[in-house]
Amino acid sequence: MAGGSARPKRRRAAKGSLVYERARGRTVAPAAPERRRRGPSRAGVLRWSGGVLGVAAISGLFAGGQVWGPGIWSGLAPRWPGDGYGFAVSAGVLLPWASAAAVMPLRGVNWRTPERGWFTRGAISFSGTAVGAAILVVFMGAFRPKPRHRGPDCYREGAPCWVHEQNPYIWAVILGALLIGAASLYRYATKHTANSTSPEGT
Prior knowledge:
The chain has six helices and no strands. The protein has helices spanning about 40-65, 70-75, 85-105, 120-140, 160-165, 170-195. The longest helix is centred in the C-terminal third of the chain and has 28 residues, at about 170-195. The chain has a domain at about 70-190. The radius of gyration is 34 Å and the shape is extended. It is an all-alpha fold. Keywords: Membrane, Transmembrane, Transmembrane helix.
């Protein structure tokens, strides 16, 4: 009984020798071709270009502050209402609004297909950028260097050291004006959003 009824045991196949056959009636999709390596993507190029432009813009602002800053402070600040402090307050309050004018018109713009009014949006954005850059040049002109980097030119009329001698608390005034400008911009934006989302006739 032990000799005739016992079935021979199948040998287990090794993992590497398992073979799967195609099922009848099923079509097997061809293997996807290997993708060729392409160059850098458009998004990567835009990010890289944006970084380069950002560094160039910051360098240009510092250079502009050194070249045109003294002339702006010596020419405008003494004749401005409130002298140098009044000039700093006006520039500080205006900067957040100029930044909003540069950024907000470009929100939601589809750059692939031209939209109605894109020229107007671009003009407003360019104007805000130009005003913001001019204000930053003014601020850079009042940026006093470290003592070891100060030379005789730092104390001439309109230069950074002269500005701080005439207006010792100039940076505190600028920071306060920036906060006031940002707060007024936020209040205007929230009020405008509330009016646009409220139902008519309420």
